[in-house]
Amino acid sequence: MERVRDALLALGHPERDYPALHVAGTNGKGSTCAFVARALEAAGHRVGLYTSPHLVRVNERIRVAGEDIPDDVFGQRILEVLERYPSALTDPMTYFEFGTVVALWHFSRERVDVAVLETGLGGRLDATSAASPVVTCVTPVSFDHMEYLGHTLRDIAWEKAGIFKPSVPVVLSRQEPEAMDALLRRAGQLGVPVVVEGRDFHLEAGADGGLAYRGPVWSLGGLTLSLRGPYQRQNAAVALACLEALQARGVAVTPEAAREGLASARWPGRLEEVAAHPPVVVDGAHNPAGVAVLLEALDALYAGRPLHLVFGVVADKDRGPMMRALFPRATSVHLTPLDTPRSLAPERYMDEARAACSRVVAHASLAEALAGARVDADGSPGGWVLCTGSLFLVGAVKRLLA
Questions:
Q1: Contact indicator for 245, 233 with CB cutoff of 8 Å
Q2: Cα–Cα nearest to 124, from 155, 100, 95
Q3: Alpha carbon distance 53, 274 (integer Å)
Q4: pLDDT tens digit string along 53-92?
Q5: Which of 24, 175, 257, 266 lies at a CB distance of 3.0 to 4.6 Å from 43, suitable for a disulfide?
Q6: Distance, CA of 246 to CA of 306 (rounded, Å)
Q7: What number of other Cβ atoms are within 10 A of residue 219's Cβ?
Q8: Three-state secondary structure call for residue 113
Q9: Helices 95-109 and 71-84 sit at what angle, rounded to 10 degrees?
């Protein structure tokens, strides 16, 4: 973190050139950021969006006006940072730290009106915490990255609350009681105004068949969401509350722009259909809480249709609860290695997998696993393929099918 702050100082504090929304949490961060960024664009703003990880190309992490940073500009920005902060060559930052500095610098050079920043991991020590937000947000907190963030929801939430800044308002999604207690306690210590889902804002089904939002100021009916899955309702509600908070902090946005943002946002890798005949769907669920909301979406969208699963996981994830929840729903499971040193070889957890599904096949490559799942799906009426367990897997599937 200190190296990030030193780099930003050397660059003349580019993070102070625009207001920002800073979003932390375990699940839902990316979709929430996508909804907010699209609504701000619909309101006429030039928006910088910084997210992670990328699925196919690193350029996806840094977007301005809805477009990935071009290769030539990316290279130019890296050189500009190194010229102004040569210490990055002798005392290297981490990959994420350096990428964050480049993003904040790029947004300044591009003269964005507002930036939307997603934390990478945690919050307190996250590189994005060097930014200067006018609104912060925490989406649902659950168990993930426990080796870095702690082994209780209270500890993990406390780390997420590290993005809070004195007097800067925070929007909180619904949380488990233990997590909410930690977030509210930290907010109280810093004098942070808090807006809480369920108490201060909510989104629910409306009488007209659309969705209705009620917040501190806005009352909106007939809303539609571009992103699939029931869990996106919570992300949309949190996004709307963030937009209200940004409006109150001087970032002009209208209810009409908010409505358009919800209806037109795009966020790859979340219940995204990437092939047909049979359908192939990718989803970035990679922890037990993510799998739980994924299953809720499958019940709503694919009920009664034979599921053929392609599953890959990294070694440091809590795979047991994910497998026990997901595998019994599948007609067949095809295990694949991932293209990362953190990949867990399928042979290492075959016994666990077979205890949860009667047909499990371990493959030597993703191409083999996907081909096997598609053959199985073709052989079962209404069959379809779901690829999940890791964002590494989602990106690899998208590259393979491209």
A1: no
A2: 155
A3: 19
A4: 999 999 999 999 999 999 999 999 999 999 999 998 888 8
A5: 257
A6: 44
A7: 9
A8: coil
A9: 100
